[in-house]
Amino acid sequence: MIAPLSWLKEYVDINLKPKELGDRLTEVGLGCEKIVEKNGDIIFELEITPNRPDLLSIIGVAREIAAIESKKVKYPKAKTDINVKPKKVLPLKIETNSAINPRFTGIIIEGINVKESPTWLWKRLESIGQRPINNIVDITNYVMFELGNPLHVFDYDKIKGNIMRVHKTKGGEKFKSVDEISYHLPASAVVISDADDIIDLCGIKGGYNSGIFENTKSILIRVPVEVPNLIRRASQALGLRSEASSIFERRVNSGGTIDALQRAVDLVLELAGGEIASSLIDIKKEDFIPWRLELNNERLNKILGIEIKETEVISLLERVSLSPKASRGIIQTTIPTYRNDLKIEEDLIEEVARFYGYNNFPKTMPAGAIPTGAIPYFKDFRLEEKIKSVLTGAGFSEVYSYSLVSEKNLSELEIDSEKVLRVDNPVSLEFEYLRPTLKIGLLAAVKQNKSYFDKIELFELGKVYLGKNVDNAKEAYFLSGISNVKSYYEVKGVLERLLAELGSNYDLSKSIELTEEGIIFELNLSDILKNIGMKKKFVPVPKYPPVIEDLSIEIEPKIKYGEIVNVIAVQSKLFNKVELLDEYGNKKTFRITYLSRDRNLTSEDIEPIREKITAALKKSFKAEPA
Fold this sequence. Notes:
Layout: E1 2-4, H1 5-8, H2 18-27, E2 31-38, E3 41-47, H3 58-69, E4 93-95, E5 103-110, H4 119-127, H5 135-147, E6 152-155, E7 163-168, E8 174-176, E9 182-184, E10 190-193, E11 198-201, E12 205-206, E13 218-225, H6 228-238, H7 243-250, H8 257-271, E14 275-276, E15 281-284, E16 291-296, H9 297-304, H10 310-319, E17 325-327, E18 330-335, H11 345-356, H12 381-393, E19 397-398, E20 404-405, H13 407-412, E21 433-434, H14 439-449, E22 457-466, E23 474-483, H15 488-502, E24 512-515, E25 518-524, H16 525-530, E26 547-554, H17 561-569, E27 575-584, E28 587-594, H18 603-621, E29 624-625
Parallel strand pairs: 4-7, 19-22
Antiparallel strand pairs: 1-3, 2-3, 5-13, 5-14, 5-15, 6-13, 7-10, 8-9, 10-11, 11-12, 16-18, 17-18, 20-21, 22-23, 23-25, 24-25, 26-28, 26-29, 27-28
Helix pairs in contact: 4-5, 5-8, 6-7, 12-15
């Protein structure tokens, strides 16, 4: 919203300096983004929230300034009695429907003179970024920006059959706008037709065939109330927005049509001449009148967390023109029709808080105990990021697959479909069951990509659905991956690194299997995350170098690597780590690292430990040196 200071001063006395006024407007919710000087005037550029269409007008902004400075707003005075019976009545039949056009307000004026606007008018429009056209069109734009109610003017003599019918489009109708652009209208757009053609796209753009030009002599001024969602749908479908549609989409001041018409008539008669040639038209199903709200002062203080005296609350509400009256702790107030944002008690509380001043609220620490329990459904995405970082660092790429699978997908992995959760009304047989494993999606991804890529390494992190019926159903996070590049030991090493990062001792013995497509793994991440230790213990870099030696033994292949490591580790406090270096038949070669943080190790230190390890392996597993 662009608001020139000179225009604002016509409606409210302003004592604040521009910078100070901009700051105060921002404090009460009108974001003052910029203040610039242009052609000797001060221009405020304001950011208006969607719930305040009343602020898309100069009068609306003036009301906020009046509330800030505790002043009264000076509204334009009526100069013409639009309710008087005219000397001549031009015929016009209007057919409308309150469901799509809640209010149709208008009047006919004949004998006008279309010409260039006076200097003050076109300069004022230019100051807010509008292009002057002619005095009649400029008046409608001026009144819309002044009062906040959009208007449209029709050339009365071009309304064929002297009939106007408000209706919805069927879709596909042709429409030529006043700026000579042709459109094919979407279905359910609200339009006005005369006896032959569509002459207006309501709330968005007027028609070329009823536009105002130099030869126009008689006009119909229409000030409508439109249905917001109908205007928005048509606007979006056409990719066409206007200042009027922006106001209608947010809900126009339904009680302000007469005031806007009065202002437009005064200006037309002053700047273009003519005489009123119809009675006041005001077609509506209901009376659009102010409504009442109640505010409990005790509840206000409880919600705001401070105590504001009732007399001060009344004063604050009076500043925003709400006519409050108090009785036994309850404040009743009348809400003007331009304040569509005030519907419930909390809205009134916000009004009090805005003008009391948020900066005047005392700074306090939150009361009560700090919550220590886990938040329901909390998910720590840092863990996901850690897992993905390790796997992508090892060369894997992440994929996402569908949670719904077919019976064929299950049978390919020899999974009994009777033991899998089934959807009662599947959209197709391809999406009939909830996946019990991530392997299905990974194997399908490999089959789709292997003809294009020689090396495929994929992983997926997501939910699987366990159980065979709703009584024992549960969901869990799983991590699954596949590689046609890495060996069993390389995949196992990646997973061991991952578990080490998570501080978990999860058993990997049954997590990796060989398939036709590669080496595939799957871990129950929900189980892993129950017992993890993300805290790391940092130790200084050793001052003394380690001693590294290789030990080869003959041992039964069925004996697990972990069991061998456990036997080696307990033989000396100097043991640092052990790695499986090579394996062939019954022969295994381990690389053992010894380390002391107090001194350099010598061969005399290592030799008895080596003998002790060899003896222990022989005793435990009947292993022999190779």
